[in-house]
Amino acid sequence: MARRATASYDERDVKVRPGRGSRPRSKLRPAHANARPGLVTAVDRGRYTCFLDGPPARVVTAMTARELGRKAVVVGDRVGLVGDVSGQPGSLARIVRVEERSTVLRRTADDDDPVERVVVANPEQLLVVTAVADPEPRPRLIDRCLVAAFDAGIKPLLCVTKADLADPSQLLATYAPLDVPTVVTQATDDGGIDPSPVAEHLRDRVTVFVGHSGVGKSTLVNAMVPGAHRATGAVNVVTGRGRHTSTSAVALALPDGGWVIDTPGIRSFGLAHVEPARLILAFPDLAAETADCPRGCVHGADAPECGLDDALAAGRIDGARLDSFRRLLASRDRQAGD
């Protein structure tokens, strides 16, 4: 068997590939000074529906640019867009900038979950929707939504629906000491909701709607925004709970100015991100009486030597308001229930 000749090699036979990164990478990034401002109105599997102010106003579909990295973009974010912002079918713009958020509504899956979830960015109001009957009100869940609003610096508003089925006065009295504005709606003859009591509170504002399933939240949105076509569902006659109909948050423009953000029905509202001692800041009249509290006092009903108890005894604060504040504080430490 013939032996194969041994080949000889030298440096001329070695092919050197141009090195990647041989040019130093610049840390400068495009300023995108001409990026069009827009509002994120919906998010769906990596695609973002954005409303661009005019002229002309239009709706475009976008993706996030690589330079944003893992920065989350949510409904309500104000962003800068480049690329194809024509809004034509098949076009795709790029989100290159997320403006600083003025407010953020957060929640966690439960009170033991350390991971915060941003529900909506930049809301001015939180409309907590609850039915007076069918399904029955869930005061603990309402309390926890109010805690999230107070903590985030968002103005809360309570909307009681289905007042034609039962008297809402007892429920309204529960929240009167908190000075939370309330509106009451009734069903119309065609099965909808009369939106007029709510509309005056929402004009020219960005308002996020929250509430558990079946309370009429999406029905109210449909009444306020013609053509919204948000899915609605009936209440289960066995469990007394509503069926989840909205599956994701969406922002909708109000005909007379402003935006409403409809969110999926919730069954719990985790508050792991809320520091109990920070809640007092949403109640200036009570906060003014805590100067002499011991260090670390969270002002609960069982807090030793709390200055709020001395202020109550001296008649400087309202007892019903203190009780309501402490009820909200206690809701931070227990799961929402029926």
List keywords for this structure.
about 350 residues; alpha/beta; OB fold (Dihydrolipoamide Acetyltransferase, E2P); Rossmann fold; Ribonucleotide Reductase Protein R1, domain 1; 3 domains; six-stranded mixed sheet; five-stranded mixed beta barrel; 7 helices
Task: Kindly describe this structure.
The protein is an alpha/beta fold and 338 residues long. It folds into three domains: 36-98, OB fold (Dihydrolipoamide Acetyltransferase, E2P); 104-262, Rossmann fold, CATH 3.40.50.300; 276-331, Ribonucleotide Reductase Protein R1, domain 1. Helix content is 18%, strand content 22%. It has seven helices and 13 strands. The protein has a six-stranded mixed β-sheet. Strands 1-2-3-5-4 form a five-stranded mixed β-barrel. Strands 6-7 form a two-stranded antiparallel ribbon. Helix 1 (139-152) links the parallel strand 8 and strand 9 (155-161). Helix 1 (139-152) packs across helix 7 (319-331). It is globular. The model is unreliable at 233-246 (pLDDT under 50).
CATH superfamily of the largest domain: P-loop containing nucleotide triphosphate hydrolases
Strand order of the largest sheet: 10-9-8-11-13-12
What is the third-level CATH name, the topology of the largest domain?
Answer: Rossmann fold
Give the percentage of residues in beta strands. Answer: 15-25%
Which series of helices and strands comes N to C? EEEEEEEEHEHEHEHEEHHH
- The CATH architecture of the largest domain is 3-Layer(aba) Sandwich
Mind summarizing the main beta sheet? Answer: 6 strands, mixed
